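Subject: Predicted fold for peptidylprolyl isomerase, 1271 residues

User T.R. writes:
Posting the sequence so we have a shared reference for the thread.
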Amino acid sequence: MWVQLAEKAPAKGRAVQVDLANSGWVVVRGKDGEIYVAEDAVPPLRQPLLGSGGSVDGRLLRANCRLFGTRFDLRSGQVQGPWCPGVERGQQPLVQLWLLWFLALLLRHLVKPQPLRVVRSRLHEGRLEVELPPLKRCWDAPLALARWLLVPREAPNWAHAEVELQVLPGKSNEEMEEVKISAVAKGCQAELGKALLRLPRTASAPQMAALVRQCFSPTAAAKGPRVAVWVAQYVQPEARGLGLDQRLFSKILDVLHTRGFDFVLLVVDGRTPQLVAQLQAHYEGQGFVKIAEPNAMGLMRAMLRPVRSAAPSAERATGADAVPVASAFQLAHGYVALPLLQEFVQLLPALRAGRLGVKPGPAQVLLRAMMVLGYVERRADGSVGVIESEELQAWERLLAEPLEPYEVPCLASLPKLLAQRRRRLETQFAKVAALLEGALLTPLLVLLLVARQRGLKELEDQLLLETGLGTDHGGAVQMTTSAPLALQRCQMMLVAVSYAPMLAKFQHVLREEPSWGFQEATELTELHVDRGLNVWGSGLQHQAFFRQLLELLGPLFSGDPQKQPRYVADTGCGDGSLLLQIYDFVRTRTPRGQQLEEFPLTLIGIDLMNEASLRAAKETLRAVPCELLAGDIGQPGAICEELRRRGVDCRQVLHVRSFLDHDRPFLPPQRRPEGARARFVRHHFVESAYLDKAGNLLAAEEVYQSLVEHLQRWAEILNGHGLCMLEAMLLDVPTTRRYFEDNVSFHFDIEAALSRQYLVPAVPFCMALAEAGLFSSLQGWRCFPESGEYCRILTQHLRRQPFRVRLADHRDLDTLESLQTPGPLQVSRAQLEQRLRLAPLGALLAEAADGPLAAIYTTRLPEESLARAEIEQVSQGPVLQIIALMAAPEAPGVGALLRDFVLQLAQVEGGETCIGLSRCGSWAGSGLGMEDYIRRHQSGELCDKVLGFHTQRGAKIVGLAPGARPVDVENQGTAVLIRYQLRGDDEPLGKVPISAPEIEAFIREELALNLQDMTLSLDSLELAQLQSRVERRFGVRLPPEALFSEGGVRGLAEAAARQGGRGQSAPESLDAKSVESFLSEVLGEGEERDSLDLARLQSQLRRRFQVDLGFEELAADRAALTEDMLRARDIHYNKWREAPIGMGSTGIGQSAPWNQKAAPGCACTTYEILKAGSGKAITAGSNPTVHATGVVKETGKKFWSTKDPGQSPFSYEAGRGKVIKGWDQGCLGMQVGEERKITIGGSEGYGAGGFPAWGIPPNATLEFTLECLSV
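User M.O. replies:
I've generated the structure tokens; pasting them so everyone works from the same file.
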């Protein structure tokens, strides 16, 4: 019998008691997120689980009997370990303790072990249900008496107990010593927690030394490291929250340090993939580094940490006090965070008492920063609470005496900076140590950069030695090998340090004068920032992103020059460097460059100019045609008028700008958002912090509406070639915390808020553009980072459309009804109301001045399997579903633009997939089975207009959903599940050139045209069919505008050829000259490359030439990099040349069997599906668990199997290079329940080195048989 619970499911790791069918039950949500239900009666005395005689451990999925020590598995109810193992001395009286010992002895020998009764549970229609079996009750009275006598009246409360840590010896032999660290409550000697260590008596094996070198540096294991093993640690559930986990960990490091150990090894609990991921993230925060798998020791889920390092890093400089190369972001975070932390520590007593007593505007900036660091939280009632921890207590001790590294670094400030750093504040917490080091080291590094720029050799040498980036060789200071890359990354600190005057005044701003620096400030009298340092740092940071902007310009300067821009106007041009780069790009990289004499290009620099910036821009642009004028980004109409006055046709202008819209002067909006727009703002601007000039807190609704009105003013003047915009986005608190060490967001957002800049999240920014009628094309925008996990930088080419898009709400019901057309997708008004009620942010309406044009409805789901034709539950979850799209017949193309806009919103929000339940438009009269009909559509034999709307945009048909839409009689109630892959590995590796004559010949063959037929006379169905076939054959999508051009077949082929192709087309040939041209295009002329440059270069190599080089090769000098590119390209070209053309080709010189497929992005890896699955698929970034058996193909020898005795299923992070390439790529797309055989060639397995520890010879071909258990 299934019974529905009235209560909500508990939070992760928590348990609640419920009463069902006159009996008590406990609902537990484990740390893995799964829900378990058990009877609230612990055998044998049936005392409550959450009472004084029992406890529940959501971390280990275990129930404990406090009386007799028995442990029960919450998943099965079975006894774990011995039955009634004995009674530990706690707070019981001695007589009661003797009685319990006696009963435990009887139970252990006379009573059969009794399991805990657990039942099945499920989520049904969004509610939790449990299946209750009939309960047999016996011995109620004797058991009640026993409980009354033996069970204590109150559960022990250790909140105020004094706990001491004891180091106790364990088992010992000649090779190994065991040590137990026990946390004991004084007075009663109850053990609240323990940790177990195994300490080898000799240096570690060579294989372990190799793992240490792999995780840290080649010199880390030079002297034979001593590695201890952290076997286990456990804290009693009732003692959690007292900081015992951290105290035990600190004691572990103390013990290992005193005994001379160098590293500590642990193996993460692997019961569920979710638990593995959570624990690995926790231990990474403690300074542990994951060990790659497979490895020479055969370790799985293992992690390593240096004993003596407070903040270890996978990339290390060589000096004793050297700057960790990978931690430049965190150093800058520490520099900006320290003044806020100092004030936060002073405010802690008031905050704990529920009052703050400081200025609310700057206080919100402070609280948001502390939320990112994990020191405060927003409670359900809206108040702010302190998250107490030993880490926070460490800050209170360390900052008792203030640190003041806050003045713009100069020679006079050096003694003070050195004195601050040499205080050597010690702490055991990795995050605290890293932030402190950043606060004290960052100004020294910036001063080092200044000294290098100004040629101050003596100061440079002193700082190189101080920071560990240089070594003294007989009086001559030489930079370490890691110093150049470290200094390259440290350039991003320049912007952070430029705000030193504002950071130094933070206490004054927070407590006394929030308007300091802004009430009377002008560009000539800025008090809060060192503008020279800021411009220098910004210019260095922006160079890499300028290249993203230039990528969007290529199509604008190709084709007919009379239709191209005649002017490029940069609002906020500064010194004119972006304009100069654009001119050089057009001149050297586009066809327009060969026609500049006939069709000149004039640059227009627009800025709030003072005399200094005017001179700088004139000097930069002296050799190119240019005009300079004064203008304010907030007054585009005035800019347009000035352009007309100078004889400039505004329709011929391409506007550009970079990182300026968030730094515009704030203008109060004319109105505030209401209805769905207000809910949208509240949803996306959680914990935002915006200040006006007076330092007062601005509402997020005001900031959003001000942005919309600002963009509307710009839309009014964009009548020509549009606007290319490069802008930074605001990350929310959880995302900033998650990617803390990956970007500048934490410290940049603090400084932006305090300096009256108005960054907004990516989704509201795109929505504001849409409300202003500005949209980018499908290929007209870029997101950074390219992985798409979040959006920090957004680059777009925007054009004005004759309509706008906004959120719809209940006030638009009449309008939404009017857009419906009769047919199977038409719904009632009540259903429209339900869509708006359950997914209030999911309905978008496109409307022109004369009326509505289209509407799209979406919702969010926890997983794809919950997809329905109508919205049945509250919109919540990571999966976006398109429910319906309705467009007016008189508005062709608006529906497609609305679809693309929804997909863009999902992508910039970090989404992975978007699904929909579509339908077949013409199946009813085809005479085919539906599956056959869909297969023919996919192969291009026929083209279904409804399905083609999705598949031509890149959607994949996943399967059929019988009965999903009963009202669709034409399709017998069956819907078609489609999926858009928003990010991941579905995108092809690259495009390689194909010829227009080749495409033209194919089109003529397909359409049976002779050479005299130069034009196309096709209806829309034939055009769609042709588009599908050309894409399948050449891997290019025919441009829609080319289908209707006057160029006919030849023009269509030329337009397709300009896009490049994929698949079996010949790779582009490379020589030294073309390599140099490519590197100049991607990197510019300089030799210096930061991590962003390397990532972009790697991506471009893969896409254009299908060449895959590692970061070490990419960081080499140009001569070595050119050699590596040519060598790698020759290998790939030879493989391509030997491969036959056809859909069955593996690309490795032979055709794969019909049932084998090439793994994505691999040259010599194929897979065969042995048994189909039906669950969630493995995607990049997911954490699958699989059974695996590996065999060397040449010898037939099995080298590994998770099904062997003592082995367990293997878990890993997919698509991130954590395992060998063939495995990593060959498993992508594998579904839960699927069995797959993967054949991996030597170069994508263990390569020329083989894996001797497992008996794998060099260049061996591997065969893995895998079964996906969970994702």
